[in-house]
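Q&A log
Question type: sequence-to-structure
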Amino acid sequence: MDTRLFLVRHGEPRQHSDRIFLGQTNVPLSDRGRDEAAAAGDELVRLQCRPDRIYSSDLLRARETAEIISARLGGAPIANVAAFRELNMGVWDGKLIEDIRRQFPDEYVKRGDDILNYRVPDGENFYDLRERVAREFHRVFQEEFFPALRAGGSPDFLIVSHLGVIHALIAELTREDMNAVMRRRWPTGSVVQCNYSAYLDRFSPMRGQKSATGQRLHQGDTGRQRF
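Response status: OK
Response body:
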């Protein structure tokens, strides 16, 4: 079996009465979100995903999703990773979008005109997010996943996180243009299989290697949504 990377967007969070900027504000899953998390777990079972560990954002909506998925996968342990949190929206985080639009009309327009580069005060832009997420992915891959794989561990790498993090990881690992990646939308509860062969090719210890079980270290071809 080839090594595979699965990215799961958390289930639907509990909804506010009006739309808010939801970055790192901590909200739990809704009832629908728990159902979506269970469906994601069932999809991973169908795909025969058997990770030794589930890496999850430590925000509540992702943690709850990971816990539900873990139960579907036979109790895989969960590592909660702060660096896999959603974009930090700074002073706008958790605030009503309509209130921000009314109180800061010029800044609201600036963000809409340059969403990748605009940074809310005390927050991040999408390139900050990409740098944060990429740095942690590289660390986890090189210090934890790859050594375990060489020792005969599971070839399945599973991350439960947020839409912004999924965008950042796909752009980083595939070297695809960030603008193009940002145009894609995956609904809550989505399972995305990312083709990260370009990353494996750049990570020199992976070239031509096999794990202790003889598995060739290269990206597989199956999955609900694959990039």
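Response note: The domain at 4-226 is CATH 3.40.50.1240 (Rossmann fold).
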